[in-house]
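REVIEWER CHECKLIST
Item 1: Sequence provided? yes
Item 2: Single chain? yes
Item 3: Sequence as submitted:
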Amino acid sequence: MKQTGKKQVNHLKRLRVLLAILLFVPVLLYFVDFTGALPQGVHALLHFQIVPAVLSGAAGIIVLQFIFAFVFGRIYCSVICPAGIFQDIINRLFCIRKKKSRGVRRFSYHKPQNILRYVLLGLTVASLISGFTSLIVWLDPYSNFGRIATNLFRPVVMWGNNIFADLLMRIENYALYHVTIHTVTWAGLIAGIIILLVFIVLTIFRGRLFCNTLCPVGALLSLVSRYSFFRMTFNTETCNHCGNCERSCKAEAIDSKSMKVDTSRCVDCFNCTSSCTRNSIRYRWAPFFVKERVAKEEVAASAPAPGIAKPSSGSRRSFFATSAAIAASLPVVSAIAPSDDVPEGENTAADDQPAPVTPPGSVNLERFKDKCTACHLCVVRCPTQVLRPAGFQFGFDYLLRPYCAFKSSYCNYECTVCGEVCPVHAIQGLTKEEKRTTQVGIATFHIHRCIVYTEGTDCGACSEHCPTQAVHMIPYEGTLTIPQVEPELCIGCGGCESICPVNPHRAIIVVANKEHQQVSPPEEEEVKEIEIDSFGF
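Item 4: Structure as written out by the authors:
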């Protein structure tokens, strides 16, 4: 019987690990893929994340996740959430050092920090209702993982590619080529490092503390999972209180002395069942209303030793100060990051606050700030790499959200990738026809910077790269021509600004529209048919 139980335990854990790998690997590769080799449809996996589903109004996905949590417990945190799986990887890597001690991490039961986690959940819900999403930007597990993958993992992969490209070139093999990293800003890099360090420190010392205390998704699911039908239960007759299950529980949810499992924190990783040598803890059908009755009968029959205390909710204690210090340090450290690609006194709206050029499909600045969680998926999937994570140049409420950095690139005239991949629908999907007529900003020409004015030489690069003919050349002096902008034709794609040779401040820049406008498509030139006689020479 023991061997049969052991096989069942291994099967459950292996199934969980297999499903986690099948979901995590494509998501990770989708973030680090700089060649565009992966199919665009991979982004569909990200729509199962709870915060994106809430912000995009995907009611079906939200209901489905709650049903899973109500029936099976918090499998979302161990199978679907990339941040949760990433913490499992950190935990596993740390376990390698513990191999001599039977590979068991020395976790121990801790009372839940219910005050902190439910206060954070309440603040998150209140901030979302009020339209202030800065809190969810820092606490959403999916977006945090996205920033780590975008700003740390992807550059490492690209640097590795360049190293191998150099080695292959020495033997005259040109299978790989050098790539330039444009998408990483100081703000994004610092944020990624901080989040990674928080995950590592909390995972090593307290396992899934982030998921069970700071994460609003974990707190939300805990309200349902505490009543789940399938759950971990003890067999009081065979349990010898060895404590293996408690030491292997990275959620710190098992009290082996009182033989209780806090299902509001259990993430169904099945580490406890694998570590139990007597098959005394099992994942089985045990509805909460039945479980209590059975548990009372078992306790009465086994007559446990007196003095066993019922787990209580606990208080904030010292961790409140620690987590508050971490949360407070995030925006402070990110403030060190310098502003990127925003010339002084330029790219501003009518007021004194600089306005970012938001991606086509974001509709308007306020809506984009309310919905975007700064996961940076659009940043890594943009073919022209025009999108960059913002620092503080557009204010605190726009921190880490993407903007169009036209000084180094431009928005492709017919590209709609960012709207297709955005899991929260902060960037709405546009057709190519809609994209060609969406005005995100208007090009503004500064004649005193133009080399036609300063050097008396021909240029016209801005006009040549304008896809809508909004920028065209008009007579200036003698044979010289100079740019002129037709605002009613300009869509703010940045083609003119990115190609302008003037540094450090461009002679032509795109000023953001806080509310995106629609323009008429450019008139197509008539193509005259020419009849060719004989050979056409």
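Item 5: Key structural point noted by reviewer: The chain is about 45% helix and 10% strand.
Item 6: Recommendation: ____
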